[in-house]
Design brief:
There is one protein chain. By secondary structure, this protein is α/β, with parallel strands linked by helices. Helices cover about 45% and strands about 15% of the residues. The protein has 27 helices and 20 strands. The strands form 5 sheets. A 6-stranded parallel beta sheet has the order 10-9-11-12-14-13, with helices on both faces. Strand 11, helix 18 (about 425-435) and strand 12 form a beta-alpha-beta unit.
């Protein structure tokens, strides 16, 4: 029956309409990517007409198949297909493609367009998010087999597979045997600048086979039967599957098979010629009702054929989602410990409270200490494991974390050294843009990394992370602030959190109330003397240093911990002055990183003590002494500054 439907005239007519409708959208906008819309319309048609279990009236249905348009430049085709499938997208929405405030933006954005599962466009990242979704499905399916049981699909381009992150995530997907992951590859051999062979002659099928994937090649991207059969074969595989579909970029258009087809909108004469070739016509961005009805009926028929979830499993799943957490009362004592070690103790307590919490490190668990000690590894044979061996794949880890967070049902963290956060910056940016509560744990946060030298010693990273909109960058400076920072990260529902933790000592304590205030408002006073002449403002392990400075300064002072600079700066002026009073005291900033960015808080008369050059290979205290980050050197600088 399916084969007969595939070969029917209405299937071919629907594809022709999707091709033309997408190009009407692009031409009206005056920009976009007609090539992929013309080349891959049969793939999207097959997915939505004959494969995906989705509910257009309930796009967030828990047990739905996920489809990620990793080749995000195909947004127009995706929107046209979602409209045809019955999602809450109107013909007017399609006509507003790429216009301000439209629900049809230039590249897919999750939360903006019904049916869009991930924000894509930066090539390679959508692939990684699909891997993350498939990992989340595998984990949750193991515990809730009737509640979570679905496939994850992605459409990738030549450009996606050129990006280095695609190697990272594809390798891990093969390692994990993600059998419900099906990736369709738009194999048109053309990139934006010219033929793909100008820059890449890789054999992607052999490459994916080496990762442990099943691979299938389709010689004709217009052959719906071949596409259908390939997906059905992939669904039965015990491995992830790459389906390479040979397509012609810009097929039926004036620039077919050339790089000009990638991003050149068709003019009105060219649109008319395309309509004649496709033997369809479109007015006012609308598709004939018989086509819409056919597509939507197919989707509904599949949806109604699904077996209902077990009621007890549903209740257990909902109970897991609604687990509450409390601030643990940890017996850490007065012993001075590294921030990463305190974080490890805190993590264990929260992991006991939250069964859905899992995560891992980029092959650095022994150093970051970001692992759940009473659990095993998550592997192809052990889906209950709560520790993920991401391997040395920082960027891939970030994209996978985003996919896991987008899937829902679990809380995910990922860890590496702060200096290596640069590998992940693009993924962190998409975490913020998508408003997902991924938790990034970055340890070894200053030159106290020591003998490993300047390659491993972060200087500009903290401030550069603070520049990303929509991210909570937390650098806690006391034991209790580390606890409060973890709690806020775990309770976040709509923004990512970055926890910056030290290899150096965190010995100072604050009250739980002070810690909560510090995390909630960005800063708090943890020590205050009357008639303070100096405000010692520090973050992270430099709070410990500020305490030593306070003790040696021989003048009245305050110590202010500022774990979240951006949050503090966003406060109203009177709220800021409750924490850092304007009473004539000089502001002295202490942070073992770049001084750029602290000027707004220091003011014209303040003193910023930091490091504006790369570090050096030496013992931690030697490096600190070299850059004047010890108590005696700072006391001298403060006194000299006040004597000006």
């Amino acid at each position: 029956m399916i084969k007969e439907q595939i070969k029917s005239n209405i299937a071919l007519e629907t594809i022709a309409n999707l091709r033309l409708l997408s190009n009407h959208m692009i031409s009206k906008a005056g920009s976009g990517h007609p090539g992929i819309a013309l080349g891959t319309a049969p793939i999207l048609y097959e997915l939505y007409a004959n494969q995906l279990i989705v509910d257009p009236k309930n796009p967030d249905m828990i047990n739905r198949d996920r489809f990620v348009m990793s080749a995000g430049h195909g947004a127009a085709l995706l929107y046209a297909t979602l409209y045809a499938a019955g999602f809450n997208i109107t013909s007017n929405d399609l006509s507003e493609f790429r216009n301000p405030n439209a629900i049809t933006p230039g590249h897919p954005e999750v939360g903006i367009t019904p049916g869009v599962e991930a924000t894509t466009g930066p090539l390679g990242q959508g692939f990684g998010m699909a891997v993350g979704m498939a990992m989340a499905e595998a984990k949750l399916h193991d515990e809730f087999p009737t509640v979570i049981d679905h496939f994850t699909f992605a459409l990738v381009s030549d450009g996606d597979l050129m990006e280095g992150v695609s190697h990272e995530v594809a390798s891990l997907a093969g390692q994990q045997n993600l059998s419900k992951l099906i990736v369709l590859y738009d194999d048109n051999q053309v990139s934006l600048d010219g033929e793909k062979s100008r820059s890449d002659t890789s054999n992607n099928l052999m490459r994916f086979e080496s990762y442990g994937w099943q691979t299938i090649e389709i010689a004709d991207g217009n052959n719906l039967v071949l596409i259908h059969d390939a997906i059905e074969t992939a669904k039965k595989s015990s491995r992830p599957t790459l389906i390479a579909v040979k397509t012609v970029i810009g097929e039926f258009g004036p620039y077919a098979g050339t790089n000009k087809a990638h991003g050149t909108p068709l003019n009105q004469e060219q649109l008319k010629a395309l309509a004649q070739k496709l033997k369809v016509d479109i007015n006012n961005f609308e598709i004939d009702q018989k086509i819409l009805q056919d597509m939507r009926q197919r989707i509904q028929k599949r949806l109604l054929s699904q077996q209902p979830s077990n009621e007890s499993e549903i209740l257990a799943y909902q109970k897991m989602l609604n687990q509450d957490i409390e601030m643990p009362n940890l017996m850490i004592g007065d012993k001075i410990q590294a921030g990463r070690k305190i974080s490890n103790i805190v993590l264990q307590s929260f992991a006991q409270q939250l069964s859905q919490l899992w995560g891992g490190s980029a092959d650095l668990a022994a150093s970051t200490l970001a692992e759940i000690s009473d659990s095993s590894l998550f592997t192809q044979n052990n889906r209950v494991g709560r520790n993920i061996a991401f391997g040395v794949r920082e960027f891939g880890m970030g994209t996978i974390m985003n996919g896991i967070a987008l899937h829902g049902g679990t809380k995910i963290f990922g860890a590496t050294f702060l200096a290596f956060s640069d590998y992940m910056k693009a993924a962190i940016r998409l975490s913020a843009l998508q408003k997902v509560p991924a938790i990034y744990v970055f340890t070894h946060d200053s030159v106290t990394v020591g003998e490993d030298g300047p390659t491993h010693q972060p200087i500009e990273q903290i401030m550069s992370l603070r520049l990303i909109p929509g991210v909570d960058v937390l650098r806690p400076g006391t034991v209790e602030e580390i606890i409060a920072a973890w709690k806020q990260a775990l309770e976040s529902t709509n923004r990512p959190t970055i926890l910056i933790l030290s290899r150096g000592p965190i010995g100072i304590h604050s009250s739980i109330e002070q810690a909560k205030l510090a995390i909630d408002r960005g800063a708090t006073i943890i020590h205050e003397q009357k008639s303070a002449r100096v405000n010692l403002i520090a973050s992270g392990s430099e709070v410990q240093l500020a305490v030593e400075v306070s003790q040696q300064l021989n003048m009245s002072n305050r110590i202010i911990s500022i774990p979240n600079l951006a949050r503090f700066l966003s406060l109203k002026q009177n709220e800021k002055e409750q924490i850092i009073p304007k009473d004539g005291a000089e502001n002295v900033i202490i942070e073992a990183g770049t001084t750029l960015g602290w000027q707004a808080l220091a003011g014209s008369s303040g003193l910023i003590i930091g490091i504006d050059q790369f570090g050096m290979s030496a013992a931690p205290q030697t490096v600190l002494n070299h850059y004047g980050l010890n108590a005696s050197a700072i006391v001298k600088r403060i006194k000299h500054h006040l004597e000006r």
